[in-house]
Write the structure tokens for this entry.
Amino acid sequence: MAASISDNNVFATLRGSGRIWAVGAIHGEVGRLRALHASLAQTMKPGDQIVYLGDILGYGADVRAAIDEVLVFRRSFLAQPGVEVDDIVFLRGAQEEMWQKLLQLQFAPNPTEVLKWMLDHGIGPTLAAYGGNIEEGMLAARDGISPLTKWTSALRQNMRLYDGHTTLMSVLKHAAYTDDDGLLFVHAGIDPTRPLSAQLDAFWWGSSGFELLDGPYGSFRMVVRGSDRRRGGVRVGAFTATLDSGCGLGGPLTAACFGADGQMLQMLEA
């Protein structure tokens, strides 16, 4: 199934022969992220790979520091002999998708309603992290394209002030899979009735079909996701794994290590 997907800007390819660590939704919880990274630093080794499954941004109190922490850990891991740039992958989560859409809010046909919806779904802390004011945004949305363009342009400029933040947002992948088509890593889920190239928003908002997956998805023997909108906790089954333990909403942050055969070898929580 994955063999027909060739857009490296959308999908990341991982080595199917090594261990792969997957990190669940972080949601701006920098304290838990630092603790998890400390554990990973003691456990990971050259040859391992790591996939952040999206939602670095979101509900937590310090979104900017969470991104900084991810970038620092990436540099530290890359500094080890034998580690390659492609060994670290970042997926686009629902929060990152909303942020990108927020920066293009002037093109929305109903920007006020869109902004309200985003605020209801956790974009507020990210907006505040980059100097955004909700009231100013609402006024700009009501006043038209020109004020709204000025408002979103200021957000973009503010984000550029923080080294690596804009670059990170530009390299996020929709999904990652191993080169033997055995393991698939996504943010919120997949629609099992659609091929990988036609998942559309299912990557970010999930699908009820993911919960019902009772066999391999194409050639993939295991599908791993990092976010569950239903907040059902960490679950590992025969064909799917969910690593959302509620980080950013009062729960811990979870990472799991998977072997080449799709079996979970280890789980860490912070």
In short: The mean pLDDT is 92. The longest helix spans residues 63-78. The CA atoms of residues 53 and 226 lie 5 Å apart.
